[in-house]
Design goal:
The protein is α+β, with helices and mostly antiparallel strands. The protein is built from 16 helices and ten strands. It comes from Anguilla anguilla.
């Protein structure tokens, strides 16, 4: 089965023909609108006056001025090859086979030899399934391609597969395989070099210049099946196949080939609509999506606590009502910055404090990140006071920007809490015991020793006491 590409259903095209030096057929260069923010100020693979370039042209382009920006040219070479790939042709068995697996159809020929399958597969794209004579119960997909018969061990677990991809039908599996084989046979060198002349620069270059924050965020790529023709947003080449054609970033939606994903910069600009939740969302993703320095939960809760709660006895130690904390959490999820936190809505300040702690505890990556956990622990364990603070300062500087800013803001707040210790009975040591497990967690889930618990508390205590020189 081949993909059908139509103008109404797919991306906007600007098409024109040119004579390719490497083949006699005419090729179409396709252009689709860029995302809402331009890809950058360079269009790639521009050729001569006609504006085209033959496949494989690796010359770099001259940069455009801002007013000269043109959308990228989407390269059609691999798309054309997919359209040319052999069609799957099922070779049916003329008689019924006893004990045929129910998930196979007439393409199942029972226990025939490899030589017999070669005789039956006479044309390109022909395929059948046979059961192994030496290993009954195991099955082989025999496929004719490139004037030879290829044999693949075939599996079924509710879907058919010979590798990582899972297919609903054998025909779909064979069709996808023929596309991959054909493109590899025709364009292996082209594929190996297609990342050399990328169109990708920084997807949100224009908008990022308007932002006050420049937090670095790695893309979160996951295998994705695109329902129609799709082009890689790094190299501008077609993403071939019928399923799992490439990867898509769950943060910003960037779509790329698997090999291109390794070259994309750490510049994920998450779309706010993709961040479904406030609680349990990655810290960097959240602040980038909302274009804030810190999570709004942290800002709003701290402001309200400092407005009316610094003298509250046992602040952060005394638990608030779990029912009301749950209600406030849901309010943040629904209303965001419009949540009302005043005395009329939440008379008990411990509800606000409890919600802040719940938010911090639920971060998928804690404020003091996993990979720096032992760096902070070791720094806190240094006996020389000056050397200890210097080591903690160096560890703080290694935090990702969003984590650094959140930790700095919290430590300054907790330092102000200790200024009211005479009223709230919360010293830096007490706050360290409360926030140690909240702000830093071990990279694994194994039970934590008392020594590590004490080290966590000491780390946070030192951060609170010395926040003015550590940040």
């Amino acid at each position: 089965m081949k993909l059908t590409f139509t103008l109404p259903d797919c991306l906007c095209l600007i098409s024109f023909f040119y004579s390719c030096k490497t083949c006699s057929s005419r090729s179409v260069i396709m252009e689709r609108p860029s995302r809402s923010i331009p890809f950058g100020e360079r269009a790639c693979n521009r050729g001569s006056a006609s504006g085209t370039a033959a496949p494989g042209n690796s010359s770099m382009c001259e940069p455009f001025g801002e007013e000269e920006y043109q959308p990228p040219i989407w390269k059609s070479y691999l798309y054309q090859l997919q359209q040319e790939a052999p069609q799957p042709k099922r070779v049916t068995c003329p008689q019924e086979i006893d004990r045929k697996p129910k998930h196979y159809g007439r393409e199942f020929h029972g226990r025939i030899s490899r030589e017999r399958s070669v005789e039956l597969l006479g044309v390109e794209g022909a395929y059948l399934i046979r059961e192994s004579q030496r290993h009954p119960g195991t099955y082989t997909l025999a496929l004719r391609f490139g004037a030879q018969t290829l044999n693949y061990r075939l599996f079924y677990d509710g879907k058919h597969f010979v590798g990582e991809k899972r297919f609903e039908s054998i025909r779909e599996l064979v069709s996808d395989g023929l596309i991959a084989l054909y493109i590899q046979s025709k364009a292996s060198q082209y594929i190996s070099q297609m990342t050399c002349n990328p169109i990708y620069e920084t997807l949100l270059m224009v908008k990022e210049q308007e932002r006050c924050l420049q937090y670095e965020k790695a893309h979160s790529f996951k295998t994705h099946t695109f329902p129609g023709p799709h082009w890689c947003e790094y190299c501008a080449n077609f993403m071939w196949g019928l399923i799992a054609q490439g990867l898509r970033c769950s943060g910003c939606g960037l779509s790329v080939h698997s090999q291109c994903s390794q070259l994309v910069p750490r510049d994920c600009p998450p779309d706010q609509w993709r961040v479904k939740r406030v609680f349990s969302a990655d810290l960097t993703t959240l602040v980038k999506a909302h274009n804030t320095q810190r999570p709004l939960v942290v800002d709003m809760c701290v402001r309200e606590i400092e407005r009316r709660g610094l003298r509250a006895e046992g602040l952060y130690r005394v638990p608030g009502s779990s029912e009301y904390i749950k209600q406030l959490k849901m309010a943040f999820e629904r209303e965001g910055e419009k949540v009302v936190l005043n005395e009329d809505a939440y008379p008990d300040i411990n509800i606000i404090a409890g919600t802040l702690k719940l938010y911090l505890q639920g971060l998928p990556i804690p404020v003091i990140t996993y990979h720096l956990y032992y760096t902070f622990i070791q720094a806190a364990g240094i006996t020389n006071p000056e050397a200890r603070l210097e080591a903690i300062h160096e560890a703080v500087l290694q935090l990702p920007p969003a984590h650094y800013e959140t930790l700095r803001y919290l430590m300054a707040h907790l330092n102000r809490v200790t200024a009211f210790e005479r009223h709230n009975f919360m010293s830096a040591e007490n706050l360290g015991m409360v926030f140690g497990p909240t702000l830093m967690r071990r990279p694994n889930d194994s039970p934590i020793s008392l020594d590590l618990l004490w080290s966590q508390s000491l780390t946070v205590q030192l951060l609170i006491q010395n926040e003015d020189i550590l940040f």
